[in-house]
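Can anyone check this?
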Amino acid sequence: MSRTSTDIDEPADPEADQPPPGDDHAFLGHPRGLATLSGLEVWERFSFLGMQAILVLYFADTVANGGLGMDPGTAASVSAAYGTMVYLVSVAGGWLADRILGSYRAVLWGGILIACGHYAMAVPTAGMTWVGLGLISAGTGLLKPNVASMVGKLYRTDDERRDAGFALYYMGINIGAFAGPLITGWLGEHQGWHWGFSAAAIGMTAGLIQYVLGRRHLAGREHSATSVSEAAALAPDAMRSSPRLRPGGPPVMKIIGSCLAFAVLATALALAGRLTMDGFVDLLTLVSVIAPVVYFAVMFRSPRVTAEERGRLRPYVVLFLASVAFNFILFQAYSTMMLLASTNARTEILGFHFPASWYASALGAFEVLLAPVVAALWVRMGTRQPHSSNKIAIGVILGGLSFLLMMIPTSGHSGDTYQMAAWWIVGSYLLLGLGDILLETSGMSATTKLAPKAFSSQTMALWFLSLALANGIQAQVVKVYGEVSNPVYFGVNGAVAVAVGLAVIALAPWLRRTMHPVH
């Protein structure tokens, strides 16, 4: 019997997406492939967040000290715009994994680009900084949606270990998030910013080495362009009749063509003096708003999405917006909170002096400590654990409370020369870290469960588009940082996040009904 075009989307070998035999409980009761993917994320986050912890400080530092001399609001805005670009590229990354490279190769090539980008940033020139950020953006767009998708492939949809597995995976992420700023921060503030970027480059290289060495334990490593070619040999007529499966078919070409057109247009406008840094930031924000709207529309209207899958996409929109609200707060841990720490927080605890960028490590430390506790709690509760939507709602509320807390130490000062105790920022990061564990692990896990089969890697990319939109909004809002009082800035942003979390809780009955049987 001939295969349909939908059939060809799957690997030629039906076992290709299954973990190797005997690996199912080899790593702390989880598949051994989880150790490989978590290890990769340790080093990827070490490099990415280690660099990001000092990026806004590098932008805001004086040229004489090796920085770029931006004012604080512009530095935070440009840093957020970089984050926007990173997650926008994840759309193409998910598509390329689904159609051409396969998840394994997409992650591998993404890691290579990231490493090259960090090495470029180690060169002490402003031009190489922008080249490096571009390479890191492209590489992260390939790596992030696909490595999370590979974690989901290690489990069956009804496996109760799934959320716990994502929690352990997220603990790996935050080991890197904890260690990165410690190393890059010390090097950046004591030896020079580009020394910090060098440490990030070495970290990503280490991650690539362990990923390749552990590849035999990964599900989906055979799903690549080769699989599609083999399927074409089995059913050439179906292959020819399905443009999206042909190498260089219209969807892929549209993405590549759009990216090239965007790059050419931006370059031409910049050379003509019509595209300023502010204009580029605004353009990225606009794209971050349009992209998820278009993507949701494509999935809702696609004939390859069944009625049942379409019904589960509706609650996913709510989870998407909740992610935007929370990550708008979270990403400011590396922008406005870093700027606040560098100017208005003490960098001394019990007589020990530390770089301001070390505050970013507190966020990772809390998540390292709390992630296994949360994972063990979900395993212990089993089917009695809260619904995914409630976990996400609580996470958003905690994120809002982390900003509301900052109203206290920033209030009642006539000038901007006060120094708050370190424990205020540490306490804010504690709330933010717990909220991050609840939202991101549940959100990524729910994404892999709710994803239409025809858009598996792409739906994970859509989750990362929520991060792009959060950064795009942040890129605009942070422009007023320093223009309005700190209590007003943190209070308004925190209150909005809390309101979004409460709204998700109010929608809980509808979410449970429409997400069923996904818990």
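Reply from J.R.: I decoded it. The first strand starts at residue 348 and ends at 349.
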